[in-house]
User: Fold these one by one.
Assistant:
Number 1:
Amino acid sequence: MSAAIGDGALVEGQLLPPIRVLAAELALSPSTVAAAWAVLVRAGAIRTDGRRGSRVATLRPGPSRYRRALERPTTPRLDLSTGTPDPALLPDLGPSLARLGRRATAGRYLDDPTLPELAQALAATWPTPAPSLNVVDGAMDGLDALARQTLRPGDLVIVENPAFPPLLDLLDALGVRIQGVRLDDEGVVADDLAVALERRPAALLLQPRAHNPTGVTLSPRRVEELAALIEGTSTLVVEDDSVGDVAESPPVSLARFLPGQTVHVRSFSKSHGPDLRLAVMSGPPSVMTGLTERRHLGQGWTSRLLQSLLADLLTQASARAQVEAARREYARRRAAVIARLALRGIPLPAGEGLNLWLPVADETAALVSLAAHGIAAAAGRPFAAGGANGPHLRVTVGLVDDDSDAVADLLAEAAAAPPVRGPR
Ligand SMILES: Cc1ncc(COP(=O)(O)O)c(C=O)c1O
């Protein structure tokens, strides 16, 4: 189909034959054609319009979940919609850049793609012993490369519900089917995973700590439970530790129990700065070798200059102290909003990380209520991953540096706002 679209045999907007007609023509069962259609829809090659049939899609995708999650009508006074770190809490790059300036060189092609000093700096805090570490241009770059390397259109991937919208967009773009599993205070619900594993998923994608948007961290007990369920299957476990060094919990990974089928990715965007574009990943050689080799055909490796900068930030006392201070400050900001919400009759689990998953009566009404006070938050709907969550907002409380009681009061008011009714 893609080839036919590419060489013009099928043109954008062209009506495709009904499933039954095509099935008869190809001597296939209608369900086979319907399944193929579903894969093409997920891959964005065609779109179906109910009874009006299916057409070749135009190459102009509508707003993705990612864009929708960030949509807001006006420039807010306080933007809590972004999920991004507070620039004021990132470590100062000046001293590290100065040190780097005295010894750095950009003159080498053939060195090891992973800077040995960086691997050394990370070894002690990596959740598995003696890891072989690969550096990528941010967690999303690593997950994108991994997904392309290991998943095929039509594969089934288990994701947490709710999930990080760009990750769902990425899976959609690859034509992958998703199944959501619920989270409780200890992480992925084991019973849900057991049921989902019966469908022989290619991968399980999870956030091991400070889950975005809920703030949930996997408990040690749950890690063991999940690993026991997955052991003996061929499902690849992919862990996206996006909060990294500003999480309060120690690093956590199923790799301790499933080293041959777990890939662990730690981002440095929240702890050291998103524009460094750095994440580090480890995984079984059966996966990582192919990924590294494929990368050589594209960008090759992640700049070792940036790797040196991160290695310096991870080893110098003052930068380490700043990251530790940021960790404490995020925890303080989060706890302050949660304590006030509890007083206002909205008890939420403590959790950790930059975001709060706030249950609301109605998402639109809650966003309008906050906007009236110049505050933006993200609607919960783009985070939905196959299953009902009830209406929520994702609120980046990591950015509430001041007046947390007043902000929490407005959040409580927004949570109770009844649905906005249109004119009759
Ligand atoms: C769950 C999750 N994964 C990945 C990312 C992106 O990380 P990076 O900047 O390293 O690509 C984020 C950023 O907010 C995130 O929340």
Number 2:
Amino acid sequence: MSAYPTAVSIDIADYLFEHFSSEDVFLTQLRKEANQEDIPNICISQEQGRFLQFILKLMKAKYVLEIGSLAGYSGIIIARALAPNGKLVALEINPKHYEFFSKKIEEAKLKDIIELHNVKAIDFLRNYKPDFQFDFVFFDADKVSYLDYLELVLPLVRVGGLIAADNALLGGDIVANGEVEEPHNVEAMKKFNLALAQHPQLFSTIAPVGDGLIMGYKTQ
Ligand SMILES: C[S@@+](CC[C@H](N)C(=O)[O-])C[C@H]1O[C@@H](n2cnc3c(N)ncnc32)[C@H](O)[C@@H]1O
């Protein structure tokens, strides 16, 4: 026992992947095909997927918004964990990623659940007026826009709902003193993490799962 969290070694990660993964044969194949089509391998990790599904099931989430879908790995994981008649609204700017994910939605027979839009998220959100409130929103796109997304999305989330984002720890760069790989992303994520931590309408935490999942619970 220690006051500090247990560091996740490769052996521990493999243990998590073996017993607490959201990945099945379909998703392994999706990752492989995405790789063959030169779509970057930057999807959420498999134990992070399981963690997301755990939260979604716990809160009986029905309506979810995802900003940044890539090949659809996280989108399919989310869609599979929704309550009956649930809906995932997914936003993806890159036409190639959009086409790939569209094909996977058909193959996974999730056409009735996933509504995918080939849009720049900020343009879409500025005019978006859904006739329901979201239970959960997942940011996994251009980090420099997260504060803008937060402002636009918060009114669309029900009290008791969550706003979450991947890469809250940025491979450790969030606390680096020296040089970092992507300074603009580190700056953006630092600002976003703090905005969630200090937001008067949110009760927030970072789960050190995968690259860090920050979550803000809408209290009012
Ligand atoms: C990290 S990947 C998403 C990974 C995905 N959530 C997963 O885990 O499978 C980021 C995606 O966000 C998309 N993206 C970046 N900026 C965007 C924007 N302004 N609007 C919508 N999508 C954007 C990129 O094209 C890319 O596909």
Number 3:
Amino acid sequence: MQALLLELIKNNTTQELRPLLQNFSKEKIARVRSFHRSMWGYYQSTPLVELKELAAWLGVRNIFVKDESGRFGLKAFKGLGASYAMACCIARELGKEVDEIDFDYLTAEDVREKLGKITFATATDGNHGRGVAWMARILGYDSVVYMPKGTAEARRLAIAREGAAVRITDFNYDETVRLLAADSEKNGWTVLQDTAWPGYEEIPLWIMQGYTTMAGEALEEMPDTPTHVFAQAGVGSMAAAVQATVIAQGYEKEPVFTIMEASEANCFFRSFEQGRMLPVGGDLETIMAGLACGEINPLAWEILANHAQYCLSCRDEVAALGMRLWGNPLGKDQKITAGESGAIGGGVIGLLDKYHNLKTELGLNKESVLLFFNTEGDTFPDKYRDIVWGGSISVDFRRKNV
Ligand SMILES: Cc1ncc(COP(=O)(O)O)c(C=O)c1O
């Protein structure tokens, strides 16, 4: 029998973990937003799309999608983390607090001169590296970006166009991160990585704080309190930032929080099942390049293992369905252009109708208000057309158990 497209697991973690939420207080989130707001000419809140007709079809009160496909013109949310973390690095270099500096200060000629040459380095599936290269170019620094084997040319090119020196390695994402860290040590590069490891936590935490702008904008704009929040995970930094921002709102009833992962890189799914952090190795082959990470960011784990209730492991068909579903909306609902890693939530919505047990387990009913994040647009345009126009990676709805 073919494996199911969607599998749900409840979080069974019982590990004692550090409470990291003090780094995501309302004040800290406001400070991040204030930095992003200072990026005049670049920063704008992204749309929160209300999918009323889709909600009626699913039998819930409402569905909202925070659409990051237009963020900073980079087609993904990732520039939020890169920009804030780079600002924090520079502030530290100058012996200042980040709230003492803003975008004008960072771009001032004398600050550039004082700091001299800096090379920011990162490993990426695509979007984070583009964000790092973009911010480095704006501020006048160099960047080096390593990408895992199998990276799409369109994604490599988008980063090279921002002025980064790009190298595609022979390794998967997690091994590429290790290689980048070792090479940075040798070359004196400043690592701006969106995942942590022992002894390297400060910068990934700043990156996670940077993502709170996305979640904060969405939650502020929502006319109703969400009852269910869904966030996709690669290393989990983004999902943890969303979860932390939700908690910071102090809602009377905390929304049910569900992580969504690619089944080929489902490290949260396996970790929730076993109740402790576990890696997934191998080639991590999935169309969801941004979610093709087999090792969890330990900082994200400490937040999500303490607070997320569920994880959904999703096959590639789920992402492809989501791209088509959000790209071809019902009635007057607005179209959303979602790339593979962004669209996973759309596919979950499209399949919930077939998985009544999941609806029951998650407690979805006519009072539910669902919030999703479309974290990327068509970052690989040929693939987007293959899937949305050409119908590749299809779902057979006639099968009883999809
Ligand atoms: C489009 C997109 N969505 C989601 C994610 C997952 O973010 P994280 O690795 O922080 O879990 C990524 C990561 O690269 C991404 O590019």
